[in-house]
Hints:
With 438 residues, this protein is an alpha/beta fold.
Amino acid sequence: MKITEIAIKDLNKADYNPRKIGKAEMDALKRSIERYGLIDPIIVNKDYTIIGGHQRTEAARQLGFKEVPCVILDLDKDSEKELNIALNKIGGKFNDLVLADLLEELKAKGRLAYTGFKDKELARLTWKKGLKDKNKLIASFVIPPFSIFDSKQGYWQNRKKEWVGFLEATGGEGRGENLISGGMGNLGAMAGGLTGTSVFDPVLCEAMYAWYCPEGGLIVDPFAGGVTRGAVASILDRNYIGADVSKIQIETNEALLKNIGETKATYHNVSGEEIYKKLPSQADLLFTCPPYYDLEIYDKENDKDISNAPSYQAFLEKYTQILHSSYNHIKEGGYAIITVGNIRNDKGEMLNLVGDTITIMTAAGYTFYNECILATAIGTAPVRASAHFSKNKKVIKTHQNVLFFAKGKEIAINPKLANIILNGATATAHHDVLVFKK
Length: 438
């Protein structure tokens, strides 16, 4: 391969070149060239059109270089464009564990700035490294595969604090019980209209993704709400596509994802039924938490918001359409996991949203596969119980139901979990006590 020095002023930029970088990346590239020189030659065609190396050429020009080393090829224009795309697209993938060790070593020697990586990116890699190579629950199952998910336990709370701390360390906002609190919460408050201010537990996300979706897999969420499910998916190297009827909520979610450098989660301002049209392929997992009818009305003016339904029956009709539409967009052997709970109507009667969800999903073609209880923090329940239970004998709810459905006869099993979670099934550790009133 012959390398020829060519004057920068004689080189021609390809106006079709798709690769762009920002100022921060350009500054990092210039620092590297200043320190080590331009050691990677520019690829040009016979007419001096740059095929690979536009950014290096520009960095060299800004640094005062008059000439750059080039490799000259003899290609037709179609081949030139093919190679331009290939040089921009084809490449290996970092081993995050090895990369984190290497960057930590260079940072200790004051050399991180010359690598193009920032402290925030290193913090993310170091945290992900801790997921895999430290003696933590994530090394096996995240949480015990029993039918009661007890979020009050110390291991669960500690893990939740790690998630919130990670978001803070990497520039996101998180405090205590709300992953969009702090700065992001203030942004949402100023904008108004957020649907995702109620918390979804990041530890539950982590466990469900580890158990039921492979790395690099695709998750669809027809009721996205806040950023938690998307952020956790992206951090754990899963792709996530979510729907929300609130444009403000989506903008808030996207701002947080950008702040923490995550790109594998995307949101669309469409109804839950329309989100399946946005999928590039069938999803490995449907993971969602729907509105609990009118328990919390998110957007009174939006007719796509099913919490606005005039009756529970009308709500169920829309809910059914959204869930039934999912079936053909989930892979054979894939799963659907829905976190949901029963609610009361204005007469105090219990509405069987859990049972209705099971009926809807099985009618769609899914197999009802697991049922778990997510035991949540008791909080003010003792105070409320003393007033309400003695009056009307209605217990204070401190749990949600996590319903698991499978598609097809050949169920996908995570080989790392197969010995403990037989065919993806959790071990039963509870009984249901049903109370009816005459």
